[in-house]
Amino acid sequence: MIPSPKKLQNLPPYIFGRIKSLGLEAASNKLDVIDLSMGNPDLPTPQPIIDRLVDTVSHHPRTHRYPQAKGMPKFRSAVSVWMKKRFDVELNPEQEVCSLIGSKEGIANLCQSYLKAGDIALVTSPCYPVHFYGVVLAQAIPYLLPINAQNNYLPELEKIPEKIARRAKILFLNYPNNPTTATIEDIAYLKEVIRFAKKYGILVCYDNAYSEIAFDGYEPGSFFQIPGSRDVGLEFHSFSKTYNMAGWRIGWACGPEKLLGPLVKFKSYIDYGAPTFIQLSAVKALEIWPGCVRELVGTYQRRRDYLHEGLTSLGWNVKKPKATMYLWAEIPDPYKKLGSLKFCEKLIKETGIALSPGVGFGEAGEGFVRFALVTRDSRFYDLLVRLKKFQGVSGVTIREPKITKGDEKVLS
């Protein structure tokens, strides 16, 4: 038998695959599954973006050919215009923007282009999984930085041992944060990040995938709005959540050429970039911003408010998030001893509710689960009714949601 590569053997089982298989098993047993385990938008891509795709594919056959690895000029120009409009950040579209086949791909390839065996990367725990697995696949070593309510979900850089800081090559930051929904309220923290990164020669990978999914007047910023950030950082953006384009696989990385160059070079050897017709559709998305995004955010805010109210009434400890499309909830006391994975397995087998176990995002996520706001309003009512029965809660009435026109047309 040919052995599997050691770097794959070192990967732990992918917990989300386990939840997915349990969901399929439950469905095959005629159990009605409510799947909130993955941040997979249920709402359709805005029609102008679809129209642009159809027109491009139908009438512009040259867009069926190989694309440019770092992205076509029109796409990179549209990104630079958007960054200026949204954050007042200046980017040279020729040298400081690179298209990605989704930001997940970009972050994984960043690890391959910057890390070698034995290097250290500073990774929060919990974290978006590719921040951890990308490091492991590059045969480098993740050094975990616990984030929790006690430290406001911000890595405590001052607690990193000197010998670790000197070996570190990359620091991953992701705000608004997946899975915890945390936000950065004080830019003084980012100034400290920049000081730390400059001192030790560390690249800051700022994952800004949720910059546009924010509520209650909160407006997430760009890392590049902070003085000195261009000396140490790259920023990653995604169309997946902002425009319901998760399956289209398109995003971008941006930053100074000297830092972006290694990623661009590495990608040029392994892929041809995102398809041209997808890039042109993404250009349309950036052009129609923020109109369609406001409606999307309104939907997520309505779902957030309703689910938060219902979970709180059932005794869950969950903070109402200012951003992202998730709720990060502490497992109720009677079930904490199970651990998050066993709890999620029990929940899906007995109720058909699929959630993400906190431990799947890192050991510091144990004791929590993540709810993704990715089903129509009436299904959240069904979920709360099932949870009430599952928990054996009495004396609580679950309020039925006000069904918004068109809500029942979303993907089930």
| Total helical elements | 14
Given the C-alpha coordinates, what overall shape results?
A: globular
What's the pLDDT, averaged over the residues?
94
Secondary-structure-derived class: alpha/beta
Strand order of the largest sheet: 2-8-7-6-5-3-4
Percentage of residues in DSSP E strands = 5-15%
Multimerization status: single chain
The number of distinct β-strands equals 13
Distance between the termini: 43 Å
Radius of gyration: 21 Å
The largest β sheet comes out as: 7 strands, mixed
**H-E order:** HHEHHEHEHEHEHEEEHHHEEHHEEEH
Structure description:
- By secondary structure, the protein is α/β, with parallel strands linked by helices.
- Helix content is 41%, strand content 14%.
- Helix 4 (73-87) runs parallel beside helix 10 (276-288).
- It is built from 14 helices and 13 strands.
- The strands form three sheets. The chain has a seven-stranded mixed β-sheet with strand order 2-8-7-6-5-3-4, with helices on both faces.
- Strand 3 (120-125), helix 6 (129-137) and strand 4 form a beta-alpha-beta unit.
Summarize the structure.
The chain has 412 residues and is an alpha/beta fold. It has 14 helices and 13 strands. Helices cover 41% and strands 14% of the residues.
Topology:
Layout: H1 6-9, H2 15-28, E1 34-35, H3 47-59, H4 73-87, E2 97-100, H5 103-114, E3 120-125, H6 129-137, E4 141-146, H7 162-167, E5 168-174, H8 187-200, E6 203-207, E7 233-238, E8 251-254, H9 257-270, H10 276-288, H11 291-313, E9 317-318, E10 326-330, H12 333-336, H13 340-351, E11 353-354, E12 356-357, E13 368-372, H14 377-391
Parallel strand pairs: 1-11, 3-4, 3-5, 5-6, 6-7
Antiparallel strand pairs: 2-8, 7-8, 9-10, 10-13, 12-13
